[in-house]
């Protein structure tokens, strides 16, 4: 069990989504074989839906890994979005850049190598959609920067916010994860209680929060 939904529900929903047939399928296989964490299938579909609905011109992603979600978002935007993605692991950056080039997304996706916090501090511009998918223990630290970089009508989508259910109940918490869990609870409190923001938290995948300004 994922700690969030029942296995039968996950299997059913994944069955409805089905297998992808394009480059995303190859990237999913690579991620599985090499134990690279990428966005879960249902969360990927949600992301695709949100991009297709919101039609963002500029997207910021925290956590590139092998470039899977960046390519997914670029495809969902029909190539009409410029995506900036931040990744600190040099090896991941090189794999992501190879994939981006191999599948011809060079002019749409730019990867910046470095720690999110350091890069965010220096980053300018306004983004219509920000996908937070790096450094689970640091979402609260990224948030002020993301809000500064968020366009007036922009949305922030944060992944893994329920962290295998641990965020919702102490019964599931593993000792070595306690700091991340506490920090994620703080993050969810902040985005849920800030009167200037409106947030919805969806128990899908590993837990997704969607936040915008009121
Ligand atoms: C869950 S993976 C991203 C998956 C990707 N968004 C996808 O779905 O295809 C998280 C990535 O964030 C990177 N990361 C973690 N903490 C980071 C930080 N503080 N700054 C930059 N990258 C970070 C990790 O190296 C890892 O590759």
From TrEMBL:
Q: Which domain of life is it from?
A: Bacteria
Q: What class of enzyme is it?
A: transferase
Q: Which UniProt keywords apply?
A: Magnesium, Metal-binding, Methyltransferase, S-adenosyl-L-methionine, Transferase, tRNA processing
User: Any idea which positions bind Mg(2+)?
Assistant: 133, 159-160
What does it do?
Catalyzes the methylation of 5-hydroxyuridine (ho5U) to form 5-methoxyuridine (mo5U) at position 34 in tRNAs.
* The protein's name in its UniProt record: tRNA 5-hydroxyuridine methyltransferase
Which residues of this UniProt protein bind S-adenosyl-L-methionine?
A: 39, 69, 87, 133
Q: List this protein's GO terms for biological process.
A: tRNA methylation
